[in-house]
């Protein structure tokens, strides 16, 4: 099936023109917009969003998602701030024609029984999902270390609680590995019907080190093969995290970004059912 490449371009550079230049060199024409000019996407002004729209449009670029930090806060944080952030994310998604809002499922208190927080987490996410549904967008939940939905079982519990076409999963291979999970065994079979796109990064179970796709324990080739066999035809979003950094998210210099692209391409070339859109 067809796939479309995208990337967290803020890993390459803060400057939008540099982001676009490097992505185009690798035949990548979509961005999951998390940051630019040293600012988080939700902190960008309307003027800045208009400039982004103009520059990316001139370059033939589009947006796979708004890579928001919504839900990456303690479960007892002021929820109205998250609702306000979601409204802003939806405004930006509308202006940039991005189909997904990436979000998280809150941090339970450290050392607590995470499973006991299912209902308060689901209630908060359901309110965010309702906003997304009303706006014709999809809230894509990312599994992330130490949030409620950091394991396959707890992610599945959220989907059983929230039955909405506006609620889906973005599957991050490395994040599962860094939680001690084996992505194929512990997460893929439970979440495959909910996954709308993938974050492409890999990691080692022994110490959580992030490595190029296919060089870790993320089961990337096996899972993508099954996803394409299922009919998946969505975004593969590069989020390499291959070097430590001066930026908040981890800078991946152009040379390492090229390594990340090549590693993914080697996997895709090995899959008979993968076709570049």
Q: Mind explaining what this structure looks like?
A:
It is globular and about 45 Å long. Residues about 245-250 have low confidence and may be disordered. It has one domain (about 1-275): TIM Barrel. It has helices spanning about 15-25, 45-60, 80-95, 120-135, 150-160, 175-180, 185-190, 220-230, 255-270; strands at about 1-5, 30-35, 35, 40, 60-65, 100-105, 140, 165-170, 195-200, 200-205, 210, 235-240, 275. Helix content is about 40%, strand content about 20%. The chain contains 9 helices and 13 strands. By secondary structure, it is α/β, with parallel strands linked by helices. It has a 9-stranded parallel β-sheet.
Keywords:
277 residues, alpha/beta, TIM Barrel, two-stranded antiparallel sheet, 9 helices
Question: Layout of helices and strands, plus pairs?
Answer:
Blueprint lengths: L1 E6 L8 H10 L4 E4 L1 E2 L2 E2 L5 H13 L3 E5 L12 H18 L3 E4 L14 H18 L2 E5 L9 H10 L5 E6 H6 L4 H9 L3 E6 L1 E2 L6 E2 L8 H11 L4 E4 L15 H16 L5 E2 L1
Parallel strand pairs: 1-12, 1-13, 2-5, 5-6, 6-7, 7-8, 8-9, 9-12
Antiparallel strand pairs: 3-4, 10-11
Helix pairs in contact: 3-4, 4-5, 5-7
């Amino acid at each position: 099936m067809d796939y479309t490449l995208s990337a967290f371009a803020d890993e390459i550079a803060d400057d939008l023109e540099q982001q676009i230049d490097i992505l185009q060199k690798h035949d990548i024409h979509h961005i999951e917009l998390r940051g630019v000019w040293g600012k988080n996407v939700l902190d960008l002004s309307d003027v800045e969003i208009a400039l982004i729209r103009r520059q990316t449009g001139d370059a033939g670029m589009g947006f796979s998602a708004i890579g928001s930090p919504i839900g990456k806060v303690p479960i007892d944080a002021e929820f109205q701030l998250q609702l306000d952030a979601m409204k802003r994310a939806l405004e930006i998604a509308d202006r940039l024609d991005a189909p997904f809002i990436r979000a998280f499922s809150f941090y339970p208190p450290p050392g607590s029984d995470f499973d006991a927080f299912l209902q308060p987490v689901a209630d908060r996410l359901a309110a965010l999902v309702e906003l997304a549904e009303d706006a014709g967008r999809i809230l894509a939940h990312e599994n992330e270390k130490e949030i409620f939905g950091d394991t396959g079982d707890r992610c599945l519990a959220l989907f059983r609680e929230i039955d909405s076409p506006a609620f889906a999963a973005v599957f991050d291979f490395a994040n599962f590995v860094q939680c001690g999970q084996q992505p194929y065994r512990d997460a893929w079979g439970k979440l495959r019907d909910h996954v709308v796109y993938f974050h492409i990064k890999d990691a080692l179970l022994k110490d959580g080190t992030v490595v190029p796709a296919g060089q870790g324990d993320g089961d990337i080739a096996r899972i993508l093969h099954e996803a394409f066999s299922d009919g998946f035809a969505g975004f593969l979003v590069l989020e390499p995290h291959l070097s430590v950094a001066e930026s908040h998210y981890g800078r991946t210099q152009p040379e390492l970004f090229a390594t990340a692209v090549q590693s993914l391409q080697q996997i895709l070339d090995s899959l008979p059912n993968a076709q570049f859109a």
